[in-house]
Amino acid sequence: MQKAIIVSYQSDKKNNVSELNQLLQEGWKVVSQSPVGFVPLISTLVILEKN
User: Fold this and answer.
1) If you average pLDDT over residues 18-47, what whole number do you get?
2) Containing H/E element for 24?
3) How many Å apart are CA 34 and CA 42, to the nearest integer?
4) Measured distance CA(10)–CA(15) in Å, rounded
5) Shortest CA distance to 1 belongs to which of 20, 23, 16, 25?
6) Whole-angstrom distance, CA of residue 11 vs CA of residue 47
7) pLDDT tens digits for 9-27?
8) CA separation (Å) from 24 to 1, 2, 10, 38, 41?
């Protein structure tokens, strides 16, 4: 099974990195990532996989 999420980071208080961390704790693995954002909002498309 695969899942795609966009991880965004603007500051320590404005980001969704915790969502990615939660998925990694649940056993999902990153298979690829591609930057998709511009300054000041940095974003990356993350493809995750779980067997």
Assistant:
1) 92
2) helix 17-25
3) 11
4) 6
5) 23
6) 22
7) 888 888 999 999 999 999 9
8) 14, 13, 21, 25, 23
